[in-house]
Amino acid sequence: MICYRRACLSIALLCFCAAVASTAWGQNPPAPQQPAPAPPPAQETKPQNPFETVPESQTKPGQTQQPPLETPKPAEQPKVQPGGQVIEDIQFRGQRRVPVDTMRALISTKKGDIYNEEDLHRDFMALWNSGHFDDIHLETEPAPGGGVILRYIITERRVVRSIKYGRAQMLTVSEILDRFKERKVGLSVESQYDPNKVQHAAVVIKEYLAERGRQFATVQPEVRQIPPSSLEVFFNVNEGPRSRSARSPLWAIKRSANAT
């Protein structure tokens, strides 16, 4: 009997504990389990901008940074300009046939004048327009006692030593020279070489041959060097065929008279 009562009491106690537990479970239900948070996405690394990066100052607080010291550069020497200086001397170099007095007479600047660029330019053009020179170069040099020295470096035009007319049978040399004088060609022996005069002479010879019935004649000038500074002008003449309309007894008589 005693055992039976103890069993009933145990069962009643278990039922009471189960009721209390169910009541507590209903009032405070367990919180639902949340999933673990996902890791944040990896950020892309951008290239560092050198203009955004400021170097840290190496100076300590309260200390001012001194600028770097630069080595002083030597002062440049100003170029000496001859303007305003006195012309101590005027020299000429390279001339052979043109006298120095002739060249001094062509220029207006004299010894003792003040150096002036405009005056020297006029003197340069006066020498060039004289027609005696192929090249002119002006140099300046400081004078020993002060002032400046002017020096003209010149190249004279070459001289015509001889003139030859190859294969010219319809014209004599005297006739050609007379025609040169009539047309004012200005080409002669011992005269200074001028290419324009040579070309003019070739045209005059060709026109003269056309008057003699050689309308298809050709005249080609050639210049040959004679050392040291002389030239020989050679006219290569090809008279060509004779025109029928140009046959005249008057020309034959004049030709025979010149030949005698």
Outline the fold blueprint.
Layout lengths: L1 H26 L59 E7 L6 H7 L10 H13 L3 E10 L5 E9 L2 E8 L6 H11 L11 H17 L6 E9 L3 E9 L10 H11 L1
Parallel strand pairs: 1-3, 4-6
Antiparallel strand pairs: 2-3, 5-6
Helix pairs in contact: 4-5
Question: Describe it for me?
Answer:
- Mean pLDDT is 76; it is low at 64-80 and 248-253.
- Helices cover 33% and strands 20% of the residues.
- The chain has helices spanning 2-27, 100-106, 117-129, 173-183, 195-211, 249-259, and strands spanning 87-93, 133-142, 148-156, 159-166, 218-226, 230-238.
- Among the domains are: 87-156, Roll (Ubiquitin-like (UB roll)), CATH 3.10.20.310; 159-259, Ubiquitin-like (UB roll).
- It has 260 residues and is of the alpha/beta class.
Oligomer: single chain
The biggest sheet amounts to:
3 strands, mixed
- Please tally the helical runs, counting DSSP H or I stretches of 4 or more residues: 6
Question: What is the strand arrangement across the widest sheet?
Answer: 1-3-2
The top level CATH class name of one domain: Alpha Beta
Overall residue-averaged pLDDT value: 76
| CATH H-level superfamily of one domain | membrane protein fhac
Q: Helix/strand/pairing class, anyone?
A: alpha/beta
Report the order of strands and helices.
Answer: HEHHEEEHHEEH
Q: Cα-atom Rg, whole angstroms?
A: 57 Å
Instruction: Determine the strand fraction and express it as a percent band.
Output: 15-25%
Task: Please report the distance between the alpha carbons of the first and last residues.
Answer: 196 Å
CATH architecture of one domain: Roll
CATH topology of one domain: Ubiquitin-like (UB roll)
Give the low-confidence spans.
64-80, 248-253
β-strand number:
6
Principal-axis shape equals: elongated
Give the fraction of residues assigned to helices: 25-40%
